[in-house]
Amino acid sequence: MDLYLVFKIGILIFGLISWFLYKSDRSINKNVLNDHIRQRERIRDLTDEELELLQPFLTSKLAVYPYNFQSSLIDNKVSYLLGTCTRKSLYSNTEEIAYYYDVDNIEIFFPYNMDMYIDGSNIFEVVFTKHYGIVIKVNDYDIKTAFENYDPNEEYLFRDVKQTKSKEKIFDNEFFEEHNTTHRQDGINSSDVESLSIYNDSKNLDNNQAYLEASKNYYKLLYQREETQFEAAIRRKHSLGWLTSLCLILATVLLIRSWLGENDQISILILICLGAAAFFAWYKPKDYLNPQQVSVVKAKIYDKDPNTCSIEVGNLMVLEYPKYWLNFIPETSDLATEMVISNDNKKLLRYGQTLSINNEVEQFGPPKLVSRNKILFVIGGILSAILYYYTDPVNNGYFAYQYYSQQSENLQIKDFTTLKNSDIKPGDMVNITINNTSCDVNDLNEDYQCHNFFINNEPMALKENNVMAIEGSLKHIFDTKFVDDVVDTEMLRFQNVQSLYVDMLNRSSNDGRYVKNSFSKIESIGQMVIDIDKVCKILPVKECDNVKYNLTHLFDTSRSKANITWDDLLTESTKNPDFSEIVETRRMHSLKQALEPFKSELQSELVNVISKYQSDNGVKITLTNQSYVDMAPLVMSKSMRFDENGYINYYFAILNNNIPANINIVGSVSDILYHKVENSDRHNLETQSISGLKVNANHHYNLDENQQLSSNLLIIINVIMFVMMTLIATINAVKLVQKTRINRNRSKEIIKYYQDRLI
């Protein structure tokens, strides 16, 4: 099996190497061909007869298979090609269908089996397409001689490779007979039917079927010419704007990345992307400026698709036409009609002598091209919305205006009194570094990102009926070891006695129905009772009664006739706070379960108390436009570490006005709130003091007194880009509406023009 696997892998590797070498050779051939075309020496022009004989190979992909089909020559100039001709394929010089001939790495195609006339050294006369040369003469044999000696019954001209790789003979004898008789017609009449046949390996079609196939695929190239100025007017003079859009998208991504990542070094890349976008918006591709070749043909319509506004003509060619031609183009046609086709063989420029793009543009002007406007409108709108959401360009513009107009000041605030009585105005830059700056307890989330702060000056007063009087009890209740069960000597002795007693009962009953109950020992029950009693008097939450019930229920026994009351338990606990008790484990678990909702309610009540304290005694700082301060380094410190049951240490640090670390808030002031304070020294006149600030604390606004705004280039770039994207979206939206209206009116006029002509 191993050898077989190695053999298969070897074959696979050999096949891949052969394929890559084959493709590499074809790529080299293309480059060599381009160099040869530029340097070749023209010896003469292609004759009309030679061009006529080449038509089957310029109108059918099957006629030139396996070569890359080209529908036109680059020009009608004939040149020499000298050397040895080699037939190459994936596995060199085999009889595979996928092959090509080359002379000194220039691929050439032999029409009418002219490859049978090649020798060891050859002189070729060749005309060129973009991918290969077509032989007109090889040594002493020209294309006319080859055609006259060509027998379509022995070789195939049009190949159907998808169905078989053997030689399936399909040939349009109408073309063959046309050059061997003096009688020629543009259409196909009844006398032509006898000369039309399509050959197959196993059978011949009857005359009717042959006529239908030939009639359907009838296609004749009359000549090629340069497009008129009116036909050229419908082509795009600019690209669709994809490169411009790509550069704008890249610039936006880089800006957002730099803005959020505090990396100003990307600014130069953003400017490069914007410059590239401006270049591609201005640049006109040469393909749209240079005149193109169009083909004048005679063909029949054998299918029409109103949904895509397209028709199918000979040789499976699909041509698009303007939507307003829909009612004037027939579903099918019995006679060949003269048509003009664009260089890419995709657009119908003229049908018959009535429908003509040239005449339309000459009389009504060219249509307005809207694809570019649609793309830039969508891209501009999306990017402006993204910039507005992520980078706040409106406030950035206001900040830059305030800075350059010298209407803003940099204020360093380091104490509560200065903040409260400071002459701050919107647009000023503030740098607030004050002790005891705490996050709004209703705002701090699980990610420790805070948007609302309070700066308080004094701690909450200690009173008998407020939470400051029960700080120790609350911290004890929220301690993870509040219900602390232990296994000590007394507990081990109890378990041994219990085991002996249960064993004795089972021996006496001889049925083993007695089992041990699970017991646990809880320490310091008295202190638990005292703390819960204190807390419930000041914060009487609903769960107090349930917790008290579970505590007293610890002491119930099956033999007791009257349960112990809370007052009895509290009296005993006051006398001996450290007493312990061995209780049933199930009752201890019930107590722990009752404590969870109790703690949750206590925390909610405590948050309400702290929130009122913060708002009544402090100045509120609100950070706007997605700016925030990361509180994690502060709240996760050892002195205020959060336990798993609540933020109790942090809460009491706020109430005690004892936040150990400073919180630095830097940003631009967008709004100021005041409250009225009576001043008795000024005859009871009311003066204003600050009760709150709204600050955009973007780190890019953090400028030193001597620092210039130009050093933070991102702010300026952000404003310019937002204005640019908004203008791109707005201008292209207006143009799109205008052009759509103009095109609609133009279509109506053209339809009326054709209706009048047809009538």
From TrEMBL:
Transmembrane stretches, start-end: 6-22, 240-260, 266-283, 375-391, 713-737
Top-level lineage group: Bacteria
InterPro entries per UniProt: IgaA
Family: Belongs to the IgaA family.
Topological category with respect to the lipid bilayer: Multi-pass membrane protein
One protein family per Pfam: IgaA
Keyword vocabulary terms for this entry: Cell inner membrane, Cell membrane, Membrane, Transmembrane, Transmembrane helix
GO cellular component, one term: plasma membrane
Subcellular location: Cell inner membrane
Protein's UniProt name: Intracellular growth attenuator protein igaA
Coiled-coil segments: none
